[in-house]
Amino acid sequence: MANEVSDKHREIAGLLQENKGKVEQLDQVFSSYFLGEHLAATGPSDRRISGQLLAQLPVKMLVEAMEIACTKLKDEAKEDAPDNAVKYFCGVCWQWIKKPESFYLKQGR
To answer: Which whole number is the average pLDDT over 60-84?
Structure first.
């Protein structure tokens, strides 16, 4: 059991390290819409993005999804608007992963 847990931690740490560049680019987009706010790198947070999600999409699509989410929620006068933007971003990404054609339909292709 302990081996399974440590293996899972190594797997998660590996995913995060592999996707560090993607997270940094997404954080730049996120913080440009929500000044002074940043994505969470680790730990339980509404602003942490799954390494599995990051691994499944190219950075161009991830950035576009973040821009869609931030544009939609940046004008909300709610304190949790940044957290909601991350949730919306994840929803857009999972939609594109599950139905890749939805990305291309959005692009008008």
So the answer is: 90
